[in-house]
């Protein structure tokens, strides 16, 4: 095991690597690309790596199911950090290639819907074929198999290509959220702008109101939800668990009480971590709803103790 | 101050006295009738009595507003016991009086609607006049001012009267609930069939959803409500507080957490006590809703602590 | 039957008469005092009067139970108007009486708690005895039975008394709400500042969440509640129905849908009328919550019809 | 345009084709495989086909995002039928191939996680490479590029292969749900076992309680949800719409009222159809919650009309 090794969803030159390199500590770690999300996470599980960076949510494609499913099942892991990366593609070509001569393009399958409109406008006759990753697409262009690849501009250097067009993206504000995942440990202290992730199972039987009850455990304690995604449990059509991101840190009382409420009413809850929100400073976070601050929780506890002593 | 003196809503011969005498400890106390609910409770507040028995809810007339308002305002008091008493009236007359010669009847104003139908059938021409209490009505019959009084059968002896007709009551199952009130102290230990009473203020401003929020604090923790009564706060039409009876004991986790939730979101909560339910044995009480037992609360707390340590 | 006769809770000289006289139409009606709320309402039921004015809510004493219970039971009646009257008492005495010589005072039992503090301060030794009404108390002072009576200042003339002290009231902003009640008919058209009253039964069996469901029928359609009062159904301790005042008019879609929702889930709902709010102009009423205006209801209906035709 | 042409997610030999052939009408239609879900649906949009069969939900992989996103955006389409197909893979090989000689295997990327455990046990050393579809994998085996392909057993004939092992699937009860999609029209009449699909947007601004409100529109009318899936709206991380399947038919009053409620409070709602539930007979469907049947809705409407006429 190596405390200095971080894995990531490879190969080199992907957006995941770019996201990983935005973390200051990445400079002092050995960064190891892996062929898949499960492979990156298994390296953490079995001690070959201290942490793994993997994509978890994309503003165009939605939740990254491989990551969600890996975090929900198997040996527990925890999220310690998130990274938001704007996603803009570059059209990478071998030096000297002109746009008019691009007949075949490649890239990761999830890249295709993100550049579809651009392709229709600028390369209406080019043939698309999928590659295993954007970086792999770049490699295939280097090898001459395709004329151009959609990838991050930063991948050009690695594969000896040049960016013919940059900032390509059909959707404005496209970005991907990545998480740094490690073995379970004590979460970092709250920063004032934190997020808590859990996976929640609703029970094997058919309980139509169960999702409503789940949301009320958060709502009644004033805990805002930022994301809720259903994932099949594998027990057949209609059986789902929910990956939920909530505002706040497990050490805050309203969050802790909501989590305990879920733990009591749901057959299974998996805590995935409390960690700083990317791109949001504590000043930008709305204060807790009246009645849900830690001070108010403490005052209510004190009042209860006094009431039980006949001193309220 | 006398630890052996109990006051009650008098005069002698009322249903309140009958209710008080159902308590075993009454046999060893000095029982002192008072002219009003405030007088009975003030004697407790100023130390002249250890406790007071007063009516709080009547199955025909509803909440006893004098009691609710006294408990909600002024120096705090606590409920330690409740007594349920079936209410059936006797028509008390001077010995020898026949029904056909009854021309005038009396009784407490709240007795009148409870015997209205009986009167219409059996004494359609009799004139009703209100007395200050049922017992006072009996006294006035003794003095010859009226021909008959509606009162508890037990009042006959006190006033030298005889019950001409008994078991009179328009409504089946009529009963009154009384509470034994003392100065605040530690509530009795839970019995498994307990009730918790609180008064809750919703805030001076206009908050239409506030009552819904109040009920959700109970509902989300599986705490059933047995009674909810609005009382004006005195701040003008439309300003109400709520007297609430909930199933369970303040020392049970689901009740405690609900009370703390109310304390956090409401401007004022007054704890009125946790005490055994009258007429219900622990075997008859439904078990807590799944996920809300003390064991499940404890297990969830343990899970949270482990989660915060990375050991869940 | 007389279409020109209005009954009211008498006797002459009560606040109810004063409230009735604030209605312009009262000038052209025969105003008949009745001995009780049931008597006033029965006159309407049996056709002896076109309408009755009775008190329904007092900012100090709460709901007027006789009125609530009469409206909830028996042959249906409907509310057509409400009147808000500030309540201030005058101390009425025979001409020439000085405060220092007042040894006995009287008034209606509900007046007593409203002037208790004033009495304690200004007449600490005076003896209180209850009268059948404030006006009746004035009459008894006229007859010399008591030295002074608490009543409306307007009652002085009727009984040949003079107001020794005026504007007496322990609570600021004390007021009473009265309603004009008639036989059921089509409600008046909405004014933009309306109120709808209903009585709702929750079912005979023990349903802890039933009140929450009731409130959600209103909440989900954005209908604000102004008052909710529990009244015993007469079926035993713990069996309640609820008198509810909601903002808006039955002809408004959000109100109509909420009422139908209640009708579907509750064993019984009694519509008591939609009528203009006293003391509130349409300009002062908050607009409906987004998504709940009549226009939005109509647009949603249109969309549904188009959807069912495959044209949405 | 051809009323007799149905497209489906091809190529020939996929599970989608097998699902399509379970529909009786398929026998009399021209069945045309398309290279992608968008292509299959665009053929319907532009009139080249009457309907398209596409996968929408998989018990292992979850929602089929391409289908969900296509139905949520672009020119409206409607679902008219659903098909549930158990998913079991066969390992297809060229005739005569033995298991011990299989060194390379292929299949659609979503097949891989569904047979991962089987591979680990029976072919631990075989190399996996992804194909564009399971059928395409079979073709590549036919061409000799790989030794074996995971596909439906029915694909063997098409590609001149033989099933070496059948009924392969890591998860029990694995199945996929397909939908038959056409241009918007009047939905089929209710069968008593129906499902209604909608896509709901929650508004661009940050509204933490919006999902809870959405669920309450269904819950308050007793409409059970069978599936809720979030999909990014493309407006950036954290912006989601929800694809929802609800029990019941748009022509049922409780469903219609819930849909109108959503339409009023949400910026956009897209009705995707009401259609018979696959694999469930009307006898197996739970009756509507008390108070939510069509008869009860009609009775409540009648009561409202009578109330507005003063005849309730």
Can you characterise this structure?
- The structure is a homotetramer of 312-residue chains.
- Chain A has 312 residues and is an alpha/beta fold.
- The first copy, chain A, folds into three domains: 1-86 and 174-183, Periplasmic binding protein-like II (D-Maltodextrin-Binding Protein, domain 2), CATH 3.40.190.10; 89-157, 3-Layer(aba) Sandwich (D-Maltodextrin-Binding Protein, domain 2), CATH 3.40.190.10; 186-312, ACT domain (Alpha-Beta Plaits, 2-Layer Sandwich), CATH 3.30.70.260.
- Chain A contains nine helices and 15 strands.
- Chain A has helices spanning 15-20, 37-45, 65-72, 112-122, 134-142, 155-158, 210-219, 253-265, 294-308; strands at residues 5-9, 30-34, 51-58, 62-63, 78-86, 89-93, 104-107, 127-130, 148-151, 162-168, 175-182, 194-201, 225-232, 240-247, 268-276.
- In chain A, the strands form three sheets. In chain A, strands 1, 2, 3, 4, 5 and 11 form a six-stranded mixed β-sheet that branches. In chain A, strands 8-7-9-6-10 form a five-stranded mixed β-sheet. A four-stranded antiparallel β-sheet of chain A has the order 13-14-12-15, sandwiched between helices.
- Chain A is elongated.
- Chain A starts with a strand and ends with a helix.
- Chain B binds chain C through residues 57-63, 65-66, 69, 84, 109, 113, 130, 132, 171, 173-175, 177, 208-209, 211-212, 215-216, 219, 224-232, 234-240, 247, and chain C through 57-63, 65, 69, 84, 109, 113, 130, 132, 171, 173-175, 177, 208-209, 211-212, 215-216, 219, 224-232, 234-240, 247.
- Chains A, B, C, D: Keywords: Amino-acid biosynthesis, Aromatic amino acid biosynthesis, Lyase, Phenylalanine biosynthesis.
- Chains A, B, C, D: One of its GO terms (molecular function) is prephenate dehydratase activity.
- Chains A, B, C, D: Residues 278-298 are annotated as: Disordered.
- Chains A, B, C, D: Its EC number is 4.2.1.51.
- Chains A, B, C, D: InterPro entries: ACT-like_dom_sf, ACT_dom, Chor_mutase/pphenate_deHydtase, Preph_deHydtase, Preph_deHydtase_CS.
């Amino acid at each position: 095991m190596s405390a200095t090794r971080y894995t990531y969803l490879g190969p080199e030159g992907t957006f995941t690597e770019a996201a990983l390199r935005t973390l200051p500590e990445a400079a002092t770690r050995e960064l190891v690309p892996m062929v898949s999300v499960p492979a990156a996470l298994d390296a953490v599980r079995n001690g070959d790596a201290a942490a793994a960076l993997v994509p978890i949510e994309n503003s165009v494609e939605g939740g990254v199911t491989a990551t969600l499913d890996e975090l929900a099942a198997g040996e527990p892991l925890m999220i310690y950090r998130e990274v938001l990366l704007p996603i803009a593609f570059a059209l990478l070509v071998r030096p000297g290639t002109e746009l008019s001569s691009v007949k075949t393009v490649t890239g990761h399958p999830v890249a295709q819907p993100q550049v579809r409109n651009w392709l229709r406008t600028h390369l209406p006759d080019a043939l698309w074929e999928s590659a295993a990753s954007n970086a792999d697409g770049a490699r295939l262009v280097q090898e001459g198999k395709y004329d151009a690849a959609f990838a991050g501009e930063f991948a050009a250097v690695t594969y000896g290509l040049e960016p013919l067009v940059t900032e390509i993206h059909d959707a404005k504000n496209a970005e991907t959220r990545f998480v740094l995942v490690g073995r379970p440990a004590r979460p970092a202290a709250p920063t004032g702008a934190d997020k808590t992730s859990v996976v929640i199972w609703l029970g094997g039987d058919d309980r139509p109101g169960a999702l409503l009850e789940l949301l009320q455990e958060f709502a009644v304690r004033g805990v805002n939800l930022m994301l809720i995604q259903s994932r099949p449990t594998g027990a057949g059509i209609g059986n789902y668990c929910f990956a939920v991101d909530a505002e706040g840190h497990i050490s805050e009382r309203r969050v802790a009480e909501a989590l305990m409420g879920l733990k009591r009413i749901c057959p299974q809850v998996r805590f995935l971590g409390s960690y700083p929100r990317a791109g949001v400073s504590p000043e930008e976070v709305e204060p807790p709803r009246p009645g849900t601050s830690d001070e108010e929780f403490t005052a209510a506890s004190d009042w209860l103790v006094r009431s039980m002593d006949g001193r309220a």
